[in-house]
Specification:
single chain, about 300 residues, alpha+beta, L-fuculose-1-phosphate Aldolase, 2 domains, eight-stranded mixed β-sheet, 9 helices, 16 strands, elongated, binds 1,3-dihydroxyacetonephosphate
C-alpha cells in the first residue's frame, strides 16, 4: 500500500472519530475504529483516547494476530473483536465500534432491531440482531459477535453498544448512523403505540430490489428464524414480517395487544398459534371505542 493511501485512511479514521463524538455516539474514550491496510496489516485507533480529538499519528499498526508493528501507543482493547470480524469477512476493510445511545438502549433492553419496518434499512442492513452479553475487551466479545458476523454488517452488543463493518471506514461509519437513526424511528413508533410491519411478500420484493440496485449484502433476508442457523452461525438476515394475503403493511400484533390491554384493562382471552385473537363482544367494542378516541 502506498504511503499516500495509508495517509488517507489515517485521515478518514480521524474524521469518522470526530463525527462519532460530535453525534454523541461515544462519550469520554469510548469506541474504536480500524481498517485493513493490506493482507498482513491493520491500522487501529489507540486505546483510551477521545475519538473527538484524535490525530493521524496516534494510530497503531498491528498484524492479523494482534501484534503491534508500529505506533507509539497501545492498540484498542477491542482489537480482538475487530480481528474476528476481518477473519470472518474477507470483503470487509473497516470496522467501527461505538455506543450510540438509542441503539444501545435497545441492546440494553434486549430488543433487537429485526422488525421489517423501513424499506431502506431492509434493503441495506437487513436486520440488526443482538450478540449475547460479553465482558468488553475479553475473548468473549469476538465469540459473541462470531455467530452473527457472516450474515450482518451491523450488530448490537448486549448491554454495551454496536459494531458495524464495511468496505471503507466511512462506509462502516454510515452503517452506524443508519442503526442509530433506525433505533430512533423505532423508539418513536413504539412510544406512539403503533408499529405497522412490512409484510412477508413485500420483504421478498425488497430482496429483489437489492439485486436490481446492486446492493451488496453479506446474506439474504429470511423471515423464518428456522432458516437462519447453520451450526453456531447465523447465515441469513432474519426479519419479523407478518404473512398477509392482501396488505403490504400489517399492524404489529404486540401493539394491537397493548391497545387491547389499554382498552379492556386485561390481556385478550385467547391468542391462537397462527396469530388469531379471540375476543368477547365487550372486549371488541372497548377496543373499537379506544381506537375511535385515539383518532379524535
Ligand atoms: P478502547 O479505548 O480500548 O478502544 O476501548 C473503548 C471501548 O469502547 C471499549 O468497548
Amino acid at each position: 500500500m502506498s504511503t499516500r493511501v495509508e495517509e488517507q485512511i489515517r485521515a478518514e479514521i480521524v474524521e469518522v472519530g470526530r463525527r462519532m463524538y460530535a453525534r454523541g455516539y461515544v462519550a469520554s474514550n469510548d469506541g474504536n475504529i480500524s481498517a485493513r491496510l493490506d493482507d498482513g496489516r491493520l491500522i487501529t485507533t489507540p486505546t483510551a483516547v477521545s475519538k473527538g480529538y484524535m490525530t493521524p499519528d496516534m494510530m497503531v499498526i498491528v498484524d492479523f494476530d494482534g501484534n503491534k508493528l508500529s505506533g507509539e501507543r497501545k492498540a484498542s482493547s477491542e482489537l480482538k473483536m475487530h480481528l474476528e470480524i476481518y477473519r470472518n469477512r474477507p470483503d470487509v476493510n473497516a470496522v467501527v465500534h461505538a455506543h450510540p445511545p438509542l441503539a444501545t438502549g435497545f441492546a440494553v433492553a434486549g430488543i433487537p432491531l429485526t422488525r421489517a419496518v423501513l424499506a431502506e434499512v431492509i434493503t441495506t442492513l437487513g436486520s440488526i440482531p443482538i450478540a449475547e452479553y460479553a465482558t468488553p475487551s475479553t475473548a468473549e466479545l469476538p465469540e459473541a459477535v462470531r455467530k452473527y458476523i457472516k450474515a450482518h454488517d451491523g450488530i448490537l452488543l448486549a448491554n454495551h453498544g454496536a459494531v458495524t463493518c464495511g468496505e471503507s471506514v466511512t462506509a462502516a461509519y454510515h452503517k452506524m448512523e443508519t442503526i442509530e437513526h433506525f433505533a430512533k424511528i423505532s423508539l418513536v413508533a413504539r412510544l406512539l403505540g403503533r408499529e405497522n410491519l412490512i409484510s412477508r411478500d413485500e420483504v421478498e420484493r425488497l430482496q429483489g430490489l437489492r439485486g436490481t440496485y446492486g446492493i451488496e449484502a453479506p446474506a439474504p433476508l429470511c423471515t423464518d428464524p428456522n432458516d437462519a442457523a447453520a451450526g453456531d452461525q447465523v447465515l441469513c438476515q432474519v426479519l419479523e414480517a407478518p404473512e398477509s394475503a392482501s396488505e403490504r403493511l400489517v399492524p404489529d400484533i404486540t401493539s394491537v395487544l397493548a391497545g387491547l390491554r389499554g382498552a379492556t384493562g386485561r390481556a385478550p382471552v385467547a391468542i391462537r398459534g397462527d396469530g388469531e385473537i379471540r375476543l368477547t363482544y365487550a372486549e371488541l367494542t372497548a377496543l373499537i371505542a379506544d381506537a375511535v378516541k385515539n383518532l379524535r
